[in-house]
Amino acid sequence: MDTETLLKHNSRSLYLSAQALPRKMRPAFSVAYLLCRYADTIADTHLLPAKRRLYWIEQFPQLIQTQDAQQITQLAKEISGGSENPYEEILIKNLTPCLTLFNQISSPQQTIIMEVLQAVCEGMRIDLNTFPTGQNISPVSLKTDQELRHYCRLMGGRPGLFWSKLIYHTQRVSMPEEEFYNLGKHIGDALQIVNILRDLPKDLQLGRCYFPQTDLQAAGLSPEDLLNPVNSTRFEPIKNKWIFWGLSRLQSAKPYFRELSRLHGGQRAAVAWPVLWTADTLYEVYQEKNLLNLQKRVKISRNIIYSTILLTPIILLSNTAFCVWLNRKMHRFSR
């Protein structure tokens, strides 16, 4: 199976973003996502004990570089049949096409792919070393705000840095390199915190509470308390704290977007879409007063996704239009 089909079936929104990218960026973007998604499947599989998952996560970046056929076969054998998602199962059995595409990518782009893969695998190593695994487990939380911010940087900010490096080396950016990279990391932080917020009930069932002990103790809560939806009201201050942290990071999208050439409309769209959808999802989380209910998983509708795409031409030629659009989405939180 080709990597384009794998991407389409494993992430609807990222597939749409990839299709909008300039051709010279698309392969690196696609293969980086698929490799990180493969690593995520290793970390989450229930077929292996935590120690064995940790082994494969620590080996995975090196495996991509050595491309040892025997190890690839062994890995697929050990994790096949553990996912409820049929397309994820197809990805498990199709690492070789990803490696073929990786080998065709330029050496500088391979380097930044490996950087982001190593960062994401480090985040997954934190998961496996911090949180319990097994049946009927009580959730464990991170300890401090700094730990959560660091986790968001590994799982979101570093992918934002990867994206920014791709852009910086394929088009002219007037902003100093490190400043542009920092903006990209901030945007990635926001994209990660929204994932943590919307996936909270599911993660709790897996023993994972990313919200720090310091926040929970201030609200008179324990990680176990979050398993009971009746405590959603008491969790509201913590939820809102991290929503507004995400919004503050998302503000970086405005100066970032101004640096993107109007000659690269697809690239501008591929940046604008995740940012706008993140603002929409944060608002859905903000509106949801029963966030701890496992049956209330928050997600934006297909209508929001496709209406954003249809309105994209308005912002392709106007930085002001993008900033106004994003500001309107953000101002909903202060009403």
Task: Give your account of this protein's structure.
This protein is mostly helical. The chain folds into two domains: 1-108, no CATH class; 131-335, Farnesyl Diphosphate Synthase. It has helices at residues 3-10, 12-20, 26-44, 50-66, 69-79, 86-92, 95-104, 107-130, 145-168, 177-198, 200-205, 213-218, 232-250, 253-258, 265-287, 302-310, 312-316, 319-331; strands at 140-141, 208-209. Strands 1-2 form a two-stranded parallel ribbon. 38% of the residues are buried.
Count of the separate structural domains? 2
> Would you count the extended β strands for me?
2
And the CATH topology of the largest domain? Farnesyl Diphosphate Synthase
Question: Helix and strand succession?
Answer: HHHHHHHHEHHHEHHHHHHH
Search tags:
single chain; 335 residues; mainly alpha; Farnesyl Diphosphate Synthase; 2 domains; two-stranded parallel sheet; 18 helices
Brief write-up:
With 335 residues, the chain is an all-alpha fold.
Topology:
Layout lengths: L2 H8 L1 H9 L5 H19 L5 H17 L2 H11 L6 H7 L2 H10 L2 H24 L9 E2 L3 H24 L8 H22 L1 H6 L2 E2 L3 H6 L13 H19 L2 H6 L6 H23 L14 H9 L1 H5 L2 H13 L4
Parallel strand pairs: 1-2
Helix pairs in contact: 1-2, 1-3, 2-15, 3-4, 3-7, 3-8, 4-8, 8-9, 9-10, 10-13, 10-15, 13-15, 15-16, 15-18
